[in-house]
Specification:
This protein is of the alpha+beta class. The protein is about 25% helix and about 20% strand. It contains 9 helices and 17 strands. The longest helix is centred in the middle third of the chain and has 25 residues.
Amino acid sequence: MRRFALALLLVAVLPGLAFAVRPKTEMLRPYLQSGGAPLRMPLPPAPAPVVGDTHTFWAWNLNNMPPTDEHIPATCRGVSDHGYVFVEDAQWTVTMNQTDVDTVLNTWDTATPAGSIDPTKGIFEIETELYGDPPDIDGWPGIVLLYYDMGCYMGQCFDGFFRSLDETNDPHSNQMDMLFLDPVHQDPGSDYMFGVMAHEFNHMIQYTYDPNEEIWLSESLAEAAMVVTGYPTDLAWLDDFVQHPSTTFWDDGTSVNYGAALLMGTYLYERGGIDLLQAITKDPAHGEGSVEAQLQALGVSANFPTFFGDLATAIAADHFTPAVRAADPYQFTLLDVGELNWTDTFSPGFDAQSIPLAVPAGALVAYRFDVTGAGQAAVVFPQYEADDLELGLIAVGGQIAVERRDAASSDWPNMTFDLGSATPVLLVLANPTNADSETSAQVTFAPGAADDDTADDDAVDDDAVDDDATDDDATDDDAGDDSGGDNGGGCGC
């Protein structure tokens, strides 16, 4: 709760802010955005920075809340085609040195790790090709990367941020395209800080096209930026989501769960690739409307609720997928989701299970049934009239099988599924709306057709195919059976 109180305070006092917060040792960054974009005022071109240039920047002292504006004397310590690294003078050779600067610029311009979608390119090129161009108020070809001691407040230390204030003529604006990064609390040349850099640069690009995007979608796009550049820094948030899978994907106006955002952003990329992420970024519409329009335009999914149900099903199924399956929408290839902390688990045998269902807005619930010999499952929603849920049923056996249903299904809301003999069986319900949904489900498993003779060459009970209505031999198809239709002869040989 403490971070949410802090979030509310920041929103109230800092318009145009996208923040990264690391409470204590956890990788938590509740980024915040304002509800409006300040006026951008392009400036006449000025000489771009060169190594050795000194400059006094406006920056926030985050030891105070609300933060106070202060001057930070810094010197340009490195220049590349797309970046200008300035380091606070008080931090030079203390927390950051020339090796760090060279590493930063190499990652920014030249190369990313093997997990990147293109290791031969840096963060700048990958993101601009994928999402679009950043703003350009200063007329320079690169982005200013200012490293300074941001400070900590109430035990929470800060990693980095992009502030749209610097794209305006505000009295405290630097009137530069720039990111603020901290060299004190994390190694500035670490994968962690490169993930922060990729995330915050994405917020800068979003500002160019849609500065008023809904927080959940803005953060999902920024989380996807971390994944595609090879720096999925928010895996601790992913673990948090896996432990609390009924957490909403939506934001509360000030914060969002970054495990949910990481899953959403990654799944958008895995389903629609660069084209989908770029189209959503550049769509001036917001939130679900923007995503649905681009899903339909690119032929990725029929609508947003269907996509959301597919996402929820993939989250539950991913742990059980033994290997990458081509063209399978119910898995992740760029993340290892892990096994969910199930809403509940059952070992039902073949007795009906009545389950009360409370599915929060923008969330999922997932149940695991460990049942052996299930040939069929029936899921019934007694007196269910709403059309807002998406259902996935996952049979985990020698080959995982997935069934999906929603209100458009002919048998909705009372459904049957052929499961074979798989165990476990996973039931997922997703609510893609902005309102909580409450109902109940009755789940029944029926045994499959049992084989009454393990040596029989029929996959099902041989009574069904025997040429005699009854078995006149307790061992059926052994040598003493007088049925001529079993085992191809019945000669007793």
